[in-house]
Amino acid sequence: EGAEFIPETAPAPGEVVLPPRQGFSSFWANSIQSHLKSMNTKTLFIAGMLAEGCIETHARDAVENGYQPIVISDAIGSTSEELLEASLKTLALHTAKLRTTEQILHCWDQ
């Protein structure tokens, strides 16, 4: 069945909920591109699990599809601290901007 939303993170009425992805990236095998384009999206905030897998792949695919990825560095996980640090360094050097949750929320309040 896959993951379910907890009440605190449940989508609001009318928000788009995409079907579960079938690989490391949501850019393939679903309708995310059409939704992002219809909203004139330019920046993607990325958080979640497996920095060395899904997070890196999402960020690279975002760049390849014309988006600016921002990885929320304290809202991602990994199988080890070493892999997490290596992924963050790789992402910062080549792919994405890194920001903390606090930095994102501070900008949002502006």
Give structural notes.
This protein is of the alpha/beta class and 110 residues long. The protein contains four helices and three strands; from the N terminus they run H-E-H-E-H-E-H. It has a three-stranded parallel β-sheet. Strand 2, helix 3 (81-94) and strand 3 (97-99) form a beta-alpha-beta unit. Helix 2 (51-64) runs parallel beside helix 3. The longest helix is centred in the middle third of the chain and has 14 residues, at 51-64. The mean pLDDT is 89.
Report the strand count: 3
pLDDT averaged residue by residue: 89
Widest sheet: strand order?
A: 1-2-3
Considering DSSP H and I runs of 4 or more, what fraction of the residues is helical?
Answer: 40-55%
Largest sheet: 3 strands, parallel
- Structural class designation: alpha/beta
| SSE topology string | HEHEHEH
* Separate helix tally: 4
Which parts are unreliable, with pLDDT below 50 for 5 consecutive residues or more? none
The best one-word shape is globular
* Portion in strands: 15-25%
Gyration radius from CA atoms, angstroms? 14 Å
Distance between the termini: 39 Å
List the helices and strands and how they pair.
Blueprint: H1 32-38, E1 43-48, H2 51-64, E2 68-76, H3 81-94, E3 97-99, H4 101-109
Parallel strand pairs: 1-2, 2-3
Helix pairs in contact: 2-3
